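Worked example

This section walks through a single chain of length 345. The input is the sequence exactly as stored; nothing has been trimmed or padded.
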Amino acid sequence: MHRQPHQFIDRHTGQVVTERLFADRTVNFIYQDVREKAPAAFKALTSARACGLLGWLRYDLALNHRLGGRGLLKTLGVRINELLEDPGLLDTPRKVFERKIRYWQCRPMDPRPGTVVSPADSRVIMGSLRDSSSLFIKEKFFDLPELLGGVGSRWHGAFRGGDYAIFRLTPEKYHYNHVPVSGRVMAHFTLEGQYHSCNPGALLCLASPYSKNRRVVTIIDTDCPRGGNLGLVAMVEVVALMIGEVAQRYSAQAYDDPQDVQPGIWLEKGQPKSLFRPGSSTVILLFQEGRVAFDKDLLANLRAPGVATRFSQGLGHPLVETEVEVRSPIAAAPATGKPRKETSN
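Given that input, the structure is written out below as tokens.
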């Protein structure tokens, strides 16, 4: 695995930024040397037990408490004025990474129902599952049936030929995930798996890595009153190295009265849905064929020239991420969108 720089484009400024990859040397060692020379050790390192131990050592061990508070907030570049809580209370690494923000003020949202918003402060790439599309990347990041539970899953057929967006969180990010569309939950389930790193270099070492990690799948129906007429939308929350849990905490107002996500409940766009435990991880959105059109600036950035991206390795062409904020628009129903189904709310 080559340790070339990995860059992305800041959506607000248009600037190319070089990412400081978390534990890059360690990840390279695990995914190159250990994976090739000691496969049993590699499997153990990406297991649930190792994930929990690494997370505890990094974020909960008493020796690490000195890394909390304003010093860590400053090191990570956290904007203090966004915090909901007194920064003095964030006195451990875990509290810093599980921080809450005044998203209703500092993450404005387009309220129109026909828009899709980013579920996280993250770096995003988009693609298509249609082999006739210029965005098609064959089974590199995930295998669709496997991602949704296997060939026998009732859901993979619904998204065959559709589009997807992959949102990669990094350790310094705000780690609450928010609802990307308004709609009724049709299904909600967890699929067991490993805890592979979301480092860009590590991703390219494995075939369809997101299909192999533990993940939580939520299917949202937007073709209903107050929905956005965007068809079915799958939100797949993928765990990673040192991320052993996705805590479901849907809140209809601020972070108040969090509840579990389950079939039948209504999810309002832009509201908190879940919390990744500390580290970095990924959210994948799946859309049915022809139901959304991605924002033009994000599509243009995908093929931007002169950007050093690790995703150019093994993919045949560069694939550039754009940094987006949670609740910012990333797609919308096309002008020729399919008619709304007549369903009861």
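What to look for: Confidence is low (pLDDT under 50) at residues 31-36, 49-53, 60-65, 339-345.
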